[in-house]
Amino acid sequence: MWSVDDHLKDVLGTIRPLDPIELQLLDAQGCILVEDIIVPVDLPPFDNSSMDGYAVRVADIAGAGEEFPAVLTVIGDVAAGSGGLSGGGEVGPGQAARIMTGAPLPPGAETVVPVEWTDGGSGEGAATAMRPAGHAPEGASGEVRIHRAAGPRAHVRARGSDVRSGDLALSAGTVLGPPQIGLLAAIGRGSVRVRPRPRVVVLSTGSELVQPGEELSEAKIYDSNSFALTAAARDAGAIAYRVGAVTDDPDELRATIEDQLVRADLMVTTGGVSVGAYDVVKEALSAFGDATYGRTADTDEQYDAEEHRKEHQHTGVSFRTLAMQPGKPQGFGSIGPDRTPLLALPGNPVSSYVSFELFVRPAIRALMGLDDIHRPRVRAELRADKALSSPAGKRQFLRGAYDAEKGTVTPVGGSGSHLVAALAQADSLIVVPEAVTSVEPGTETEVVLLG
Description:
Helix 1 (4-14) runs parallel beside helix 7 (349-367) and helix 3 (225-235) packs parallel to helix 7 (349-367). The chain has helices spanning 4-14, 178-186, 225-235, 250-260, 281-285, 305-312, 349-367, 420-425; strands at residues 21-24, 32-33, 37-38, 48-49, 53-56, 70-78, 95-99, 111-114, 143-146, 156-157, 168-170, 191-195, 199-205, 209-210, 221-222, 239-246, 266-270, 317-321, 324-325, 329-335, 340-345, 377-382, 388-389, 395-403, 408-411, 428-432, 438-439, 444-449. The relative contact order is 0.13. A 6-stranded mixed β-sheet has the order 16-13-17-21-20-18, sandwiched between helices. By secondary structure, the protein is an alpha/beta fold.
């Protein structure tokens, strides 16, 4: 048997980050930067108003109040995107300019008074908004009464107050999410150099599988694995493609895999890796290279997984037995002209999903060039009605519900590898080491967080 750690080491030992490419901003979402981004221009590039209101001189509104408002002459508008004060000129003593949010502070003005602190030029009480310029162009002239004073540069966004030219905007290794995409756009970058999101093809096997939405006839079940694993691949950061279930026909499976290789940086199959007469994944994948070079019963006791990896470099797919539950049968290797990595997972839904979390997710994250490729792990106190049993010599992964506030974890459902409903209620995996056969309630255990 292979240990969980040796199998994972074998997988990650052959995964290399994808080569960087230049992508447009929206296409780069979820990707990893491979270059430092230096700010080319100040942000904001000019002093501008953070409010709709009036641009004025400080001295003209000193002491203004409800009883004795400051009365100023409105000389024009400053709209966002405009070159300055309509009609030109500057704000002089006793004058004000209507200014919109984001508009540049006009020459002569020293501060901005929100429109709510004024009568909006109506000659009446406090305004709640400005009259639209298109409906009331006269609002850009006349008089405005200001009921509150404002200090120097109040409600003014200073040039470079966000970032300055020459600053480091984003460093290499940053994952580009919506805020980072927004920053890149704000400083004028239309494209960036990144490691692309890996393309992952997920394929389930089994003549018993029917697609959801179709009629379920006798001896058939719905294909859930391909949906769960495709969603899991997307959650890990990949661009994932789901292939409809392939029947237990080696030729059909081989042809399907060959067709899908063109769009795959990583392939994942589920089902057909055990020892049954109709477990055809082994037979089908043998066409892509030496599929039998993995460890066998007559292999020397001192088998060295690292030397084995160096010798064969995964020119085919190795099928092996792991000392874990669920997920004992596994396959891994490289296929096709580009030596595309392939992970063959067991077919039971829980086995398949647990295997994905332990082996496929880290592989996806490694292809992306991330340093942190594993799910977070914590220690938690086991809350259970009775002791949990575990087979000797195997690392068991039980579904759990983790309570971060209390620092506890509670088993969800049984240990059966077919219990999909219990898996849907779990947010963690309880890890029982190989040497442990029983875990008493109250014991501190290792927990893998899935959410």
